[in-house]
Structure formats: C-alpha cells, structure tokens
Design goal:
The protein has 476 residues and is α/β, with parallel strands linked by helices. It has helices spanning 8-11, 22-25, 38-45, 55-59, 66-74, 78-85, 92-98, 120-133, 157-168, 198-210, 226-232, 261-273, 297-308, 329-338, 448-451, 456-474; strands at residues 149-153, 172-177, 213-216, 235-238, 244-245, 258-260, 289-293, 313-317, 341-343, 346-354, 357-371, 377-381, 387-390, 393-396, 400-401, 443-445. The protein is built from 16 helices and 16 strands. The model has no long low-confidence stretch (mean pLDDT 95). Bound molecules: flavin-adenine dinucleotide (FAD) and iron/sulfur cluster. Flavin-adenine dinucleotide is lined by residues 98-99, 153-159, 176-179, 184-185, 189-190, 194, 219-221, 239-241, 262, 265, 297-298, 301, 447-448, 453-457, 459.
C-alpha cells in the first residue's frame, strides 16, 4: 500500500542506512554503515520523482540509469536492477560506498529542494551486495570470444573498468599489478571503515569468473618489461594512478614523527590484512597528539585511522575554510562525529622539534580571497598571526601528482607539463584516433594518470571509455 503512493517523498523522509555510534566505530576498522533492510531500500527508492530529465543521471560521471534501477528496487526486482546498474558501472558497490554523492548524483536530485535527496549511493550499494548474496553474476552468455588479448597495467578502478568492458566484448584482458591484491587505492589507500576489503576480494572472484586474468605482484618496468607486453598483446591499457607525494616544502618536514599520508594508510591496511611489505612500515599513533595537514579525502582517512589506532587527540589543519574543502561533506561529518578537531584557515609553515622529534607545528592564519582557476577561494596569509600547535606526530596529506615512468619516452608516450599522460577523451575515426589513445597508437590510458588525482567513479568511467576506444582500434 505504501509503495503505491506517488507522494512518497512527502510521507517518507530521506533515511540513510543505520550508522554505528561514533564511540563504537572508533574502536574498530569495519564499515560504519549497515545495509538497508529490503523494505527500507524499496521505500527509499520509491521516493524518486522520476523526473523527465534526470539531473542525477547527468551529474553521475558514469551516467548510471538511476531512476530506472530505483524503480526496479521499488518493485523488489533486485537481479534486474543489478544487471542494469552494471551496464554503466563496473564497480557499483564501491561507488555506492565511496562516491562523494553530495556533490554528484545526490547533489543534483530534485528533492534537494527541502525534502532531502534520494539515497542513491546507498541503494546502488544495496543492489549489488544483495544481488551477489543471492548468487547473481554478470550475464556472459551472449559473449562471442575473439582472438584478441589486451594487457592492462594497474588493477585500480581505471584498469578494472577497462577489463570489464573488454571481457564483455570477447577480448581477453590480462591485468598486471605490482600489489598482491586488486583494487589499487581501493585496497591500498582507502581504509576499511569506508570500504571493507572483502568487497574487492569478492569482485576479483567475479571478474575471474567472467574471464579476466590477474597477474598480481608483477611490476611492469622491473619484473616484466613493457616491450614484452607490446609484443605479446594486441593493445596495452595503462591505469597506473598518481603516486608522487606532494611535500609541504617547509622546514622540519624530515623530522622523526612526520609521516606521508599514503605510506601511513597503506602500512595500516597491510597490518590489518596481514600483508608483509618491506616498502610500507606500520606506524601506530596510539597515545599521540596528532596533527593531519590537508582537507581532502586522504586527510580525512588519516584523521580517522589515527583515532582508531588510539591517538590521544587528532587535529585536522586546513588552510582554507570549511566551505572550500575539496572532499566529501559526508566524511567530514563522520570525522567530526568521531572526535576529529578541525582548525580551518591555518597554513603550516614549519614543523618544530628538538633532537629529531616532532614537538609541534607552526602555523599562520589565513583569510579567504578571490577564487583560483578551479573556482575555490584562495587562502591569503594574515600578517603576524603565527601560533604553534603542540603535537607528537604530523601526517602530511597534500595530495598526489603523476609519478615519473622511465619507459614513456622509449615508447613515444607523451605527457603534459604536469606529468599527466596525454590521452584525449574523444577519438577521431577519420584520423584513425580512438578514445583515450596515447601518442603511441597501441597504448591507451585513463584514470588518475590522465586526469590527475580525482575520484574512483571518474577512473572507472575513463577505463570503460578507453576500452571502447580499444575495441574500435582492434575493430571488434
Ligand atoms: P589507482 O587506484 O591508483 O590504481 C593504480 C594501480 O596501478 C595500483 O594498483 C598500482 O599498484 C598499479 N601500478 C602502478 N604502476 C604499476 C606498474 N608499473 N606495474 C604494475 N602495477 C602498477 N575517491 C573517491 O571517489 N572517494 C573516496 O572516498 C576516495 N578516497 C580516497 C582516499 C585516499 C587515501 C586516496 C589516496 C584516494 C582517494 N580517492 C577517493 C581517490 C581514488 O582512490 C582515485 O582517484 C582512484 O583510485 C584512481 O584510480 P586509478 O585506477 O586511476 O589509480
Ligand atoms: Fe552517484 Fe557515484 Fe553511483 Fe553515480 S556512481 S549514481 S555519482 S554514487
């Protein structure tokens, strides 16, 4: 009876899935949101107005058929919803968990006008998790196999998006990654409280059943030469991410007790998963006063990891104000609930300490100025406003830039002045140029290494689009 009501959005408010209480969730690393019960998922999905021109769909980087799968959930038709959601997205259960929905699909939902957006992300996650639990697997019965094989370098969201589209079109993807598990930053970066690791392990099995081959623990460039891939395969896709750590560039950054964000996070994930790695030390910040520098998703993940390790206090220092933070609003709210203190409009100028140990961080105040080229207001330093925040550990989370790859020039792969690989999103059939093709016709690229550090969903999209380019190039 309730589900036949067209004005459901008035009678039923937005209801996120239940969240564990903050004091309990900081004691463990598990995901903080519970799954919807079927009735709640159906009732929340039924709030959708089915707008003639769905803004959510336009805003979603992979252009999911959102209102259509919401309708299927309303009707209890989960398996069809899963099939439909996989037509546009290779990792819907991941995007449902980690997309910053408030600035993507849900940000453009018509119901934001006072009623509260439809909980699109949580329902997307619910569809795939439920379908998998019911034994659903992508339908590969209509696939006609070709004799083409493509090497994919990187098992992050870009590489996986590419492999998904290739295999569904009968082209064999062989995915190489230097790490022992697939996922890229989804496994070795994003912490469990946003995305539990069994989600990627389950996804690996599903991809393998579909015909994707993974060769893990293989570094292309050292273990296997790129020239080998170029001769063995019909095309190569690169989804190798951006791994050059951005330094603060202030005095004291070399002191003991100053940590690089990603190294810190990966060390912690490896510790939790029991992976041995000589490259990433496990650092425990238990009992320490910790300052995390930065205001994006990485900073938020470091804040919340430190709290879970038992840090005495965690302060997040950001040079702009809250309105100009780049990451997900939801995760800032979660961090605050868990006990992270925020100090906005503070710019670090030095780490202070004696005998090699951190004792504090010196900051100056800032005020917001004119917008920069990305539309975010610049932070202008207020003269004579220095202060010291006492702490025993500093985590620097200023983001990442493309890292250098020494075989680009030998293989005619061009990069721009910021080190990003040039792989234009649009092809030109007449010129025999294909989507996401690099300056080497046999090599395609997508994700962070092409657009700069961005989002999971944009990497998935570019991997999928590049696969379409590869199919055109291979004429299959
Ligand atoms: P990656 O995920 O970096 O994957 C690249 C893969 O290539 C890696 O597995 C790497 O091992 C492999 N590789 C590289 N070179 C080689 C080589 N030579 N040989 C073999 N393998 C190689 N985005 C969101 O949307 N939501 C979030 O909440 C979010 N949180 C984040 C938190 C953190 C801490 C970080 C660092 C990023 C976060 N992001 C988030 C951003 C998101 O994770 C990235 O934009 C996305 O993972 C990029 O995908 P990718 O496939 O391009 O690269
Ligand atoms: Fe929203 Fe991301 Fe899902 Fe698109 S992929 S519908 S933006 S949660």
């Amino acid at each position: 009876e309730q589900l036949s009501n067209d004005f459901q959005f008035i009678d039923v408010g937005r209801q996120d899935p239940r969240k564990k209480e903050a004091h309990l969730r900081v004691q463990e690393f598990g995901e903080i949101y519970e799954e919807y019960r079927p009735r709640d998922a159906a009732s929340q999905a039924h709030r959708c107005l089915h707008c003639g021109n769905p803004y959510c769909e336009w805003k979603c980087p992979v252009h999911n058929y959102i209102p259509n799968w919401l309708k299927l959930v309303t009707e209890g038709n989960i398996l069809e919803a899963a099939e439909l959601s996989h037509r546009t997205n290779s990792l819907p259960e991941v995007c449902g968990r980690v997309c910053p929905q408030d600035r993507l699909c849900e940000g453009d939902c018509t119901l934001n006008d006072g009623f509260g957006a439809v909980t699109i992300g949580s329902i997307e996650k619910y569809i795939t998790d439920t379908a998998f639990a019911m034994g659903w697997r992508p339908d590969m019965t209509g696939v006609e196999w070709t004799d083409k094989r493509v090497a994919v370098i990187g098992a992050g969201p870009a590489g996986l998006g590419c492999a998904d589209v290739l295999v569904r079109n009968g082209v064999k993807p062989v995915v190489y990654d230097r790490y022992p598990e697939i996922g890229g930053l989804l496994t070795f970066g994003i912490p469990e409280f946003k995305l539990e690791k069994h989600v990627m392990q389950r996804r690996r099995k599903v991809f393998e059943e579909m015909g994707v081959e993974f060769r893990l623990g293989v570094n292309i460039g050292t273990d296997v030469a790129i020239t080998e891939l170029m001769s063995e395969f019909d095309a190569v896709f690169m989804g190798m991410g951006t791994y050059k750590y951005m330094e603060g560039g202030f005095p004291g950054e070399q002191l003991d007790g100053v940590y690089k964000a990603l190294d810190y996070l990966i060390g912690n994930v490896n510790h939790n998963l029991g992976f041995a790695s000589a490259d990433f030390d496990f650092v425990s910040l238990e009992g320490k006063r910790v300052v995390v520098l930065g205001g994006g998703d990485t900073a938020m993940d470091c804040n919340r990891t430190a709290l879970r390790q038992g840090a005495e206090e965690v302060t997040c220092v950001y040079r702009r104000d809250e309105a100009n933070m780049p990451g997900s609003r939801r995760e800032v709210k979660n961090a605050r609930e868990e006990g992270v203190e925020f100090l906005f409009n503070r710019q670090p100028i030095a780490v202070v300490g004696e005998e090699g140990r951190v004792e504090g961080i010196k900051v100056v105040r800032t005020r917001m100025g004119d917008p920069d080229e990305n539309g975010r207001q610049r932070a202008e330093v207020v003269p004579d406003s220095e202060e010291i925040i006492e702490c025993e550990a500093v985590v620097v989370a200023f983001g990442f830039q493309p890292h250098e790859v020494d075989w680009y020039s030998d293989h005619r792969v061009e990069i721009d002045d910021r080190g990003r690989v040039l792989a234009p999103e649009k092809g030109d059939m007449e010129m025999k140029r294909f989507a996401y093709q690099t300056s080497n016709e046999k090599i395609f690229a997508g994700g962070d290494m092409v657009r700069g550090s961005d989002l999971v969903v944009t990497a998935v999209f570019e991997g999928r689009q590049a696969a379409e380019g590869i199919l055109d190039y291979l004429q299959v």
